[in-house]
Amino acid sequence: MNEDNFDDVLNELQNKISQFDNKTSNKIHFSFLKKVNFKSPFVYPVIIFFILCVFLIILKPNFTKYNSQDEQGNVTRKVSYKRLVFISLILSIVISISLYYFKLR
To answer: 93: closest CA among 36, 47, 37, 39?
Structure first.
């Protein structure tokens, strides 16, 4: 009798777990990509812009830095996020136009 009860409880728990597992499939997370038209020339600049921003934030090149002086007179180099966004925007426009002109036309 105790084993029958154990099997019933085990089956009930497996059913509950399988219901939860079906709700969290990988298809749900990326379902918005079906709506994106990747043939459009307006999709690539946005993707390239975000990739360049992340790339420049990680590398922190000198052309995105400026000199900052504190109260004691110490000069430090800090990243200017305004320059970083501006440079990423210009580069993403240039890259996307060239990509569209040479590949997607």
So the answer is: 47
